[in-house]
Amino acid sequence: MSTDRYRGYRDPCRAVMQRLGFKVWSEVRMETTRGTFEGLVLPRSETSDELHFALKLGTGYNIGIRHDTVRAVEELGFREAVYKIPEQEFPKDPALPRVKLYGTGGTIASRLDYRTGAVIPAFTPGELYGSVPELADICNLETEKLFGVFSENMGPEQYLVLAEKVGEAIRDGYDGVVVGHGTDTMHHTAAVLSFMVQNPPVPVVMVGSQRSSDRPSSDAARNLIAATWTAANGPIAEVMVCMFGPTSDKYNLLHRGTRVRKMHSSTRSTFRTIGDIPLAMVQDGTFTPLHDSWQPRRADREVTVQARYDERATLLYYYPGMLPDVLDAVVEKGYRGVVIAGTGLGHVNRKIYPALERARDAGVQMYMTLQTLWGFVQMQVYETGREILQLGVVPLANMMPEVAFIKLGWALGVHPDDPDAVRTLMTTPLAGDMTEREPHDGYLIFQGGVPEIREFLGSVWR
Ligand code: ASP
């Protein structure tokens, strides 16, 4: 249903509450055109819209009631939810490393309040200690909540703050930094931090969870323990993502920030290193390197923070039949750079060539990456590739589309008036965003049902 006709009225539910005299957390009997309901009026969650009340019924179910179906309301009581996890003071041990944990939101920062059905944040050190007491055996943890958003709401504004804050924690002498983040766009933010915070002397570890901590299958505690341990003790100093391993829940993997991607919408083992193998495994306080090249922890390394970003970069996912006006619109709207995710080795159809030409003439930078995710852009192989090269599209080896998009926003921010410098930055490998080759044992996409895979899985999934 279109919400247009509510424009200008801001919040129709609030108006109904004022008119009929009830509040969030009121226990009510609500008479509507669809019947009478009794329940608790819940606060609005991130996902609900402004046209519906959320009512928790006595059965435990939540229902949505459209504001304009409400006829009368009787307030039966008031029952505000307790939004606090029992706080316990985080113990301090001078012998343990100091770790800074920044919270940005996401499932890892939430738990469900069963009484109300609302997802609530949990992030003070005391709350974390209350729910994951193991953290106190690892380090002295200091936490700071920077944002409380689901990760689709992360963007340039938050990236700049986060990068500065990570730089600040490093300069303040923390032994490691953990960033709690929603998993959906964690790979974008991991790329952002890899470019904005270069040469960290200590680990910068991003962590999230697919299931909130109140669920028995939650990955929140184990991911947090592994990430915090890595930040406190890991011998590696890169921007990384620390998440659940692929075949068992016994270990976590550390993925390089420029090579990682969320690959499954719901399973706990959702992050994969693309175009390479993961950096290391972390298990019960041990670090097992998998990769042969990584930056070691080094106290004397000077971090550089370049927190700049230009939002006029975009990512165009090519599809067969794409018409030139899609690209023309981007140019007309004043975008300064486009990353194309092309087919195969880096292709788009002939129809959009004139638009590529117009974009080039307007000074818009264009870069080619691959929808296949694995493998290298090779534009010399087919005629199409050669033609697109001539139209000024620059190939980006095996940089992932999202990583290239983030890098372009950052590069345009760092060099606002120097297109050549932007191009040089884009085509120079940085923090592993482009590699010389992809290991052949990196690319393993299992197909379930095949006998040898079943046999293997039988040996690891007990
Ligand atoms: N939608 C959530 C987010 O990305 C999912 C999660 O945290 O895993 O913020």
Brief digest:
By secondary structure, the protein is of the alpha/beta class. The protein contains twelve helices and 23 strands.
Q: How many angstroms does the end-to-end distance come to? A: 48 Å
Name the assembly state.
Answer: single chain
Percent in strands? 15-25%
Can you tell me the CATH superfamily of the largest domain? L-asparaginase, N-terminal domain
Main beta sheet: 8 strands, mixed
Structural class: alpha/beta
Number of helices: 12
Low-confidence segments, given as residue ranges, are: 1-9
Q: Which CATH architecture of the largest domain would you pick?
A: 3-Layer(aba) Sandwich
The beta-strand count equals: 23
CATH fold call of the largest domain: Rossmann fold
Helix content: 25-40%
- Radius of gyration, CA atoms, in whole angstroms: 25 Å
Number of domains: 3
CATH class of the largest domain: Alpha Beta
Biggest sheet: strand arrangement: 9-6-10-12-13-14-17-18
Ligand identities: aspartic acid
Taken from the alpha-carbon principal axes, the silhouette is: globular
Q: Averaged pLDDT, please?
A: 89
Kindly describe this structure.
This protein has 462 residues and is of the alpha/beta class. It has three domains: 4-78, SH3 type barrels (Roll), CATH 2.30.30.520; 98-305, 3-Layer(aba) Sandwich (Rossmann fold); 313-427, 3-Layer(aba) Sandwich (Rossmann fold). Helix 4 packs across helix 5, helix 5 (186-196) packs parallel to helix 10 and helix 10 packs antiparallel against helix 11 (419-427). It has helices spanning 12-20, 125-131, 135-138, 156-171, 186-196, 220-233, 324-332, 353-361, 383-390, 401-414, 419-427, 451-460; strands at 26-32, 35-41, 52-57, 62-66, 70-78, 98-103, 110-112, 119-121, 140-145, 176-180, 197-198, 204-207, 239-244, 252-256, 260-262, 271-273, 280-283, 286-289, 304-305, 313-317, 337-342, 365-370, 393-395. It has twelve helices and 23 strands. The structure holds aspartic acid. Aspartic acid (ASP) is lined by residues 106-107, 150-151, 182-184, 208, 210.
